[in-house]
Amino acid sequence: MFHCEVTHKNSALDEKCHKLVVQTRPRVYTQRVWDEDMNEWITVHVGTGSEIVKEVNASEEGLKVWASLSDEDRRMMFPLVKSK
Description:
Oligomer: single chain
Number of strands: 4
Strand content: over 45%
Helix content: 10-25%
Number of helices: 2
Distance between the termini: 34 Å
Radius of gyration: 20 Å
């Protein structure tokens, strides 16, 4: 049992919880390695990707409601989190 954040209702006991990603941001992954030639630690770019900033719980009914909403309605329902 969980609270659907789209419909604002509690779910049934056997209902599956779905996670909806509301906001993501780009992320650069780095790693510190020891450089023998320079005899110091350097930061190496390992990859890029995205990370989830905000996600919400949704029921089956909530998924249907979410699919029917426009992007503007979704932003009004869940305002974006400010970046650092």
